[in-house]
TrEMBL record:
It holds the Pfam family APH. InterPro entries: AGP_Transferase, Aminoglycoside_PTrfase, Kinase-like_dom_sf. This is Aminoglycoside phosphotransferase domain-containing protein. Residues 72-262 form the Aminoglycoside phosphotransferase domain. It comes from the Eukaryota. It comes from Didymella heteroderae.
Length: 367
């Protein structure tokens, strides 16, 4: 999440008066509560913080809640194209009970075909406001970086089927023949990206602007097509620092927000998020406008720490790291090989318009 709210209403074709109507609708819904704009806002949503009025002593029967039972929540408005799938959100909360917010849809009268949701408030600060955006000596922030990376490994490990409390019958695909197995696996990938993974990779093979990236996309496509006996799990679709909440003092992960792009995909597809923890985008030189992704001095060691931790938590991954890394590469290509374009996600990135995404592709696929 970031500070985007100044442009949100214009971006979705609404006005400040519509913003006021939304805030008023929440105040009516949560009578005797304090409603304020949330400190951190996302690009695709507008969020309010709702808390109990401490000086309200005249609680009346029938109002929304009372001070003894009401915990602060956030109310989020989203346009139709960025609506939350409440079923997916509930699945995230089940799989990650301490990390994903509990979500419910709100029936409010709102302008512009907006949707409203109530979400439990998670502790922590957005990691994007804490990560350095300059190269630092290896010893500076070392303890926090190690905590962050090991914490990230534990988060990823929770997605492995055996770590989810009970094994889902459909999470690990087995069939009588590889062709049946592949068909069954693809049927489990039902989301916006997962339902057309093969086609999206094929398009990258044809259209990525750099030859070696096209070749890497072909290798990744081949790896996906021969994948067998591999779990399909819920992946957070936008696992970047602005959506990761951490303890400000230790950098241990305390929450994951914005599950709007989450969907069922092969385990490890979300691992492009690890690279975002290890570096930052900067200009290639003071006189250049070409962005590059610069890794911190300790990036190689921290990446190895991640894998060591992940395998120690999920021993079943011993000997399968190559498969997980192949799905990690697929995630890198699918998320950074396509331009966002206000959520269309159907245009392959190019050198003219998408320098930052290409910088990430070059860096993430070179390690």
């Amino acid at each position: 999440m970031a500070i985007w709210q100044d442009n949100f209403w214009a971006r979705i074709g609404l006005q400040e008066t519509d913003k006021a109507k939304c805030i008023e609708a929440v105040k009516r819904r949560y009578d005797r509560h304090h409603v304020e704009e949330f400190e951190c806002q996302g690009y695709c949503s507008f969020t309010l913080l709702v808390s109990w009025l401490e000086d309200s002593n005249n609680f009346e029967r029938g109002s929304h809640s009372d001070a003894g039972t009401f915990a602060p929540v956030v109310v989020q408005f989203r346009p139709a194209q960025h609506a939350l799938d409440v079923d997916i959100a509930r699945e995230a909360s089940r799989l990650y009970p301490s990390l994903a917010p509990k979500v419910r849809a709100l029936d409010l009268y709102l302008p512009g075909n907006l949707y409203a949701y109530e979400l439990s408030r998670l502790p922590g600060k957005p990691l994007s406001g804490l990560l350095p955006h300059k190269l630092l000596p290896g010893t500076e922030l070392r303890a926090k970086q190690e905590t962050l990376v090991t914490s990230f490994a534990h988060v990823v490990a929770q997605g492995w089927p055996s770590k989810a409390g009970k094994q889902r019958r459909d999470s690990v695909v087995r069939a009588d023949s590889p062709s049946m197995e592949k068909q069954s696996m693809l049927l489990l990938c039902t989301g916006k990206v997962g339902s057309c993974v093969t086609q999206k990779l094929q398009k990258l093979v044809r259209e990525l602007p750099v030859k070696w990236l096209r070749e890497r996309a072909m290798i990744t496509l081949d790896n996906f097509c021969v994948l067998e006996d591999y779990p399909i799990v819920l992946n957070h679709g936008d696992l970047i620092p602005s959506n990761i909440l951490v303890d400000e003092q230790t950098w241990e992960i305390t929450g994951l927000v914005d599950w709007a792009e989450a969907e069922q995909l092969p385990f490890g597809t979300c691992l492009f998020g690890l690279e975002h923890l290890l570096g930052f985008v900067q200009l290639s030189s003071p006189n250049s406008t070409r962005p590059v992704f610069a890794y911190q001095e300790d990036a190689v060691r921290l990446r190895q720490l991640f894998w060591t931790t992940l395998i120690s938590v999920v021993p079943e991954l011993e000997g399968r790291q190559g498969e997980v890394q192949a799905m990690r590469d697929m995630g890198v290509l699918l998320w950074h090989g396509y331009a966002w374009d206000e959520g269309a996600i159907d245009r392959v990135v190019d050198e003219v318009n998408d320098g930052e995404e290409l910088a990430k592709l070059r860096a993430f696929l070179s390690v």
